[in-house]
Amino acid sequence: MEEWLEHLLENIKPIDQDVLEKAQERLDNLTKPKGSLGRLEELGRQFVAIRGDLGARVKKKVVFVFAGDHGVVEEGVSAFPKEVTAQMVYNFLRGGAGINVVARQVGADVVVVDMGVDHFFKPAPGLFHAKVRKGTNNMVKGPAMSREDALESIKMGVEVAFQYAQKGYNLFAAGDMGIGNTTPSSAIFSVFTGRSPQEVTGRGTGIDDEALARKIRVVKRAIEINQPDPSDPIDVLAKVGGLEIGGIAGLILGGAALSIPTVVDGFISTAGAMIAAALCPRVKDYMVCAHRSAAFGHQAALEWLGCRPLLDLDMRLGEGTGAAIGMWLMELGEKILHDMATFQEARVAEGEET
Q: What's 109's domain CATH number?
């Protein structure tokens, strides 16, 4: 393992149990029955425990849309051509995509991270240039990328985390854009969970039965040809992954090293979360799984992570749309922890009607 990565993983410490306990104590003394606000309470105490400060507040929120192209698209695994990846990046930058609408509503900024789009983008507000290469190779013909490129994609995700932490952001969300990227994500799910490609591969952008059968064959063939080693997450990422998936893994790891939580979106973001968790199991405490995607196979990945999603809205868009909503719920949990009065503060006798 690279020295910089070893150093990063060493800096990811367990979340602060003392703060967690003190937060729980305050929650139990708020003017409500104990535990009555359910997972909102859980999110509030998780946020302050990750930050290591009982008084921590959500300051600035940002959704990162990691974008990359995939050589496997040439196998006919998507309903859309790869050119749509670049077209959607421009849509994000203009503010016209689903994630822009949701982010505006929850008060979050949107930053597109170009990890590996097969297109040249001029500098633009809201665009972070992190291109490792112009898309991956076709993974049914060999590794999707070199081990060096896989490591570089993680490193760039870490760099994103550090740069935006310096800008005052203390709550991250991970989203994605990349035509064909449910195919490498399905392969990652299969490798780590031990489930067959049939059990974790879905229709992605809405392909028909014939294309789905072809997609399952592609995932199976890619795993057979490349033999990714589940005990070596970098090997898995390099052989059957994607550049944006590596970037998401890096964001989560970098955020954890900085004591910043990352809200994970759906299918593709969860693949990145799996890479991060395989590298450092402690990082699971720094993640929030926003929702259960309607995309087939997502549940198996969530179970592998041991992560219970906040929402189940039959969403499968990606882009970070579910994560933006989850981010807002975490902020709401933080406000409940801090802004709701305790029985003593409100001069209310616990257990009595008011």
A: 3.40.50.10210
Kindly state the percentage of the chain with pLDDT values over 70: 99
HSE (side-chain half, CA atoms, 13 Å) at 262: 35
Distances (CA, A) of 82 to 85, 88, 135, 239, 276: 6, 10, 10, 20, 26
Token reading at 75: 């196998």
Tell me if 238 sits within 8 A of 280, measured CB to CB.
Answer: no
Q: Is the pTM of this model over 0.90?
A: yes
pLDDT-derived band of residue 1, with 50, 70 and 90 as boundaries? confident
273 in the same domain as 153: yes
319 is catalytic: yes
**Sign of the Cα pseudo-torsion (277, 57, 48, 28, in order):** negative
pLDDT tier for residue 223 given thresholds of 50, 70 and 90: very high
Q: Which residues pair with 263 in a beta bridge?
A: 173, 288
Q: Which residue in the list 41, 75, 319, 331 is annotated as catalytic?
A: 319
For residue 34, the enclosing domain spans 3-56+337-346
Residue type, 278: A
Instruction: Identify whether residues 88 and 212 lie together within a single domain.
Output: yes
Distance between CA atoms of residues 297 and 219, nearest Å:
13
Residue 276 falls within a domain, yes or no? yes
CA distance 115 to 86: 12
Written as one letter, the residue type at 354 is T
Phi/psi at 32 (5° precision): -170, 160
